[in-house]
UniProtKB/TrEMBL annotation, chain A:
<keyword id="KW-0520">NAD</keyword>
<keyword id="KW-0813">Transport</keyword>
<dbReference type="GO" id="GO:0008137">
    <property type="term" value="F:NADH dehydrogenase (ubiquinone) activity"/>
</dbReference>
<dbReference type="InterPro" id="IPR001268">
    <property type="entry name" value="NADH_UbQ_OxRdtase_30kDa_su"/>
</dbReference>
<protein>
    <recommendedName>
        <fullName>NADH-quinone oxidoreductase subunit C</fullName>
        <ecNumber>7.1.1.-</ecNumber>
    </recommendedName>
</protein>
<keyword id="KW-1278">Translocase</keyword>
<keyword id="KW-0830">Ubiquinone</keyword>
<dbReference type="Pfam" id="PF00329">
    <property type="entry name" value="Complex1_30kDa"/>
</dbReference>
<dbReference type="GO" id="GO:0050136">
    <property type="term" value="F:NADH dehydrogenase (quinone) (non-electrogenic) activity"/>
</dbReference>
From TrEMBL, chain B:
<keyword id="KW-0472">Membrane</keyword>
<dbReference type="GO" id="GO:0048038">
    <property type="term" value="F:quinone binding"/>
</dbReference>
<dbReference type="Pfam" id="PF00346">
    <property type="entry name" value="Complex1_49kDa"/>
</dbReference>
<dbReference type="GO" id="GO:0005886">
    <property type="term" value="C:plasma membrane"/>
</dbReference>
<dbReference type="GO" id="GO:0051287">
    <property type="term" value="F:NAD binding"/>
</dbReference>
<comment type="similarity">
    <text>Belongs to the complex I 49 kDa subunit family.</text>
</comment>
<comment type="subunit">
    <text>NDH-1 is composed of 14 different subunits. Subunits NuoB, C, D, E, F, and G constitute the peripheral sector of the complex.</text>
</comment>
<dbReference type="InterPro" id="IPR029014">
    <property type="entry name" value="NiFe-Hase_large"/>
</dbReference>
<dbReference type="GO" id="GO:0050136">
    <property type="term" value="F:NADH dehydrogenase (quinone) (non-electrogenic) activity"/>
</dbReference>
Length: 201, 417
């Protein structure tokens, strides 16, 4: 671990203390996990504490762990990974939060802390159906007007459910159930450890 | 007395200066913008979902189609993410080639950005000149990868092949006679590096030409000075990166601050703006092109002197050379496995970011050890920039909205993904 990462993890331990569920340093990156109820408070400290200074929110990414490792996952299903950047300190951090309820995942919105979270949370809501309480304008953003479902969930088929075509008789575009079959060219395979020993092995 | 009402109009998605498929719902009080609500997603293809159903290497060409004016930079971030997950080293020559093509791409992107920005706000001529130079650089793309735009040239572990010894030449046809062809081929007699070097020598002159057209142009300044001002604090709060952040006076460039590949070996400066308006960002882009030119020259110099491998020797990740594959059973098996099942990436997650011409382009990749990504998230710089549209455009005239879209340099391939 480089001295810089050591300093960062030291500062995280000091500032967040008990609110830190876990801290992982892997491949030169620091990932912390926090509980959903601490999320907003942690966000505030991460931005404002002079030893951390994460003034930029770079990315918010939804995650659906339901088929992770071909079903080997036992934790909560939905998570959000927030990528932060400190321009002043020149370091990065990933914050992960798992939503408590798998059927209706809700997390607190960090728009008040970092305004750039606005569209990222809208995107996460749109694609994963994770709700953000306190978000000022939680509308769909990437999918079509009137779209049903959350397409990036693992149980949503890649082909979708409806397709669109021009109907000459009605003189307009109509929606109909998809007519194409889902097709998988290369099956998804998880090999045992050290299969073919790539890289680290 | 007549009732005064605000007016709501649709700007785009068919507007020529909407840069593709931006639909902007503008609420106007007379000509002043009260609220701007960008509707995006008209070009949403679900690249991230598609990538989950493809092997790691099959998604490389999708990256070209994200930001389709800076293709190789997108590939770069994706390949870097895979390399970090695997923990493999890229040969030094491949790193120089990547840096060189990143900078070629930066020039390509800024030429289009400045050209169309000028076109949008009334300077018709610019785009004609910038597209002339883009043509030369696209020929370089084509010489090295076979495709003018969607190159798929960067691969996990290096680049697809070494630089060609011969630059493709024009041929006589019924539109071009022998004389024209000879003129066109004058700079194409040598290798690709010779052609690129000739271009870099010419390019500073071209930049001077662009500056003559715009920098002191009265109309250009009236349209851009003081328009779309972003303070450094706002820029950070809105998650700006790249030129949008540097234009506001924050000296932040990943190539300097968190150097990847061989950016710490090459010499270049990072231009920074002062006021954070459209004009400053234009000046920053102009200077960045000159700096990219400098970097390309240094890379050409190094690449001439140092031959070597351009892709990693690990055949679980990169295919073996074709002739060895034909002659050797072991290599044949590697080749077959790599292109059918694909590579297995160890479990873990990684976020790899590059200084893309538009800002920070990042790839967040999660692997569960399978031959396909478990989750791939692209962090597009334009997404964060466009998200701040409402706040930047508020209080400006409707014509300035066009200038702001131009200065953000939005491309919908990356925003909608």
């Amino acid at each position: 671990m480089s001295p810089k990462l050591e300093r960062l993890s030291q500062a995280l331990h000091e500032v967040l203390g008990g609110r830190l569920r876990s801290i992982v340093v892997d491949r030169g990156e620091v990932t912390i996990e926090v509980a959903p109820e601490d999320y907003l408070g942690v966000a505030q400290s991460l931005r404002d504490h002079a030893d951390l200074c994460f003034e930029e929110l770079i990315d918010v990414s939804g995650l659906d762990y339901s088929t992770y490792g071909n079903g080997a996952w036992s934790g909560k299903r939905f998570a959000v990974a927030v990528h932060l950047l400190s321009v002043a300190k020149n370091w990065r951090l990933r914050v992960k939060v798992f939503a408590d309820n798998d059927d209706f995942p809700v997390l607190e919105s960090v728009v008040g802390v970092w305004p750039s979270a606005n569209w990222y949370e809208r995107e996460t809501f749109d694609l994963y159906g994770i709700m953000f309480s306190g978000h000022p304008d939680l509308r769909r953003i990437l999918t079509d007007y009137g779209f049903v479902g959350h397409p990036f969930r693992k149980d949503f088929p890649v082909t979708g459910y409806v397709e669109m075509r021009y109907d000459a008789e009605q003189g307009r575009v109509v929606y109909q159930p998809v007519t194409i079959e889902p097709r998988e060219n290369t099956p998804r395979i998880v090999r045992e450890e050290n299969y073919g020993d790539v890289g680290h092995g | 007395m007549a009732e005064i009402r605000n007016y709501t109009i649709n700007f785009g998605p068919q507007h020529p200066s909407a840069h593709g498929v931006l639909r902007l719902v503008l609420e106007l009080d007379g000509e002043v913008v009260e609220r701007a609500d960008p509707h995006i997603g008209l070009l949403h293809r679900g690249t991230e979902k598609l990538a989950e159903t493809r092997t790691w290497i099959q998604s490389v060409p999708y990256m070209d189609r994200l930001d389709y004016v800076s293709m190789m930079c997108n590939e770069h971030a994706y390949c870097m993410a895979i390399e970090r997950l695997l923990g493999i080293e890229v040969p030094i020559r491949a790193q120089y080639i990547r840096v060189m093509f990143d900078e070629v791409t930066r020039i390509l992107n800024h030429l289009l950005g400045i050209g169309t920005h000028a076109l949008d706000i009334g300077a018709m001529t610019m785009v004609l000149y910038t597209f002339r130079e883009r043509e030369d650089l696209m020929d370089v793309y084509e010489a090295v990868s076979g495709a003018r735009m969607h190159a798929a040239y960067y691969r996990p572990g290096g680049v697809y092949r070494d630089l060609p010894d011969r630059m493709p030449q024009y041929e006589v046809n019924r539109f071009k006679n022998a004389n024209t062809v000879r003129q066109l081929n004058e700079s194409r007699q040598g290798s690709m590096l010779d052609f690129l070097e000739d271009f870099t020598n010419r390019f500073t002159g071209y930049c001077d030409d662009y500056e003559t057209l715009l920098t002191d142009n009265r109309i250009w300044k009236q349209r851009t000075v003081g328009i779309g001002v972003v303070t450094p604090e706002q820029a950070k709060a809105w998650g700006f990166t790249g030129v949008m952040l540097r234009g506001s006076g924050v000296p932040w460039d990943l190539r300097k601050k968190q150097p990847y590949e061989v950016y710490d070996q090459v010499d270049f400066d990072v231009p920074v703006g002062k006021t954070g308006d459209c004009y400053d960002r234009y000046l920053v882009r102009m200077e960045e092109m000159r700096q990219s030119n400098r970097i390309i020259k240094q890379c050409i110099d190094w690449l001439r002197k140092n031959p070597g491998p351009v892709i990693a020797d690990n055949h679980k990740v990169a295919p073996p050379p074709r002739e060895r594959m034909k002659a050797n059973m072991e290599e044949l098996i590697h080749h077959f496995k790599l292109f059918t099942e694909g590579m297995h990436v160890p479990e873990g997650e990684v976020y790899a970011a590059v200084e893309h011409p538009k800002g920070e382009f990042g790839v967040y990749a999660v692997s569960d050890g399978a031959n396909k990504p478990y989750r791939l998230k692209m962090r597009a710089p334009g997404f964060a920039h466009l998200a701040a549209m409402d706040e930047i455009a508020r209080g400006h005239m409707i014509a300035d909205v066009v200038a702001i879209i131009g200065t953000m340099d939005v491309v919908f391939g990356e925003i909608d993904r």
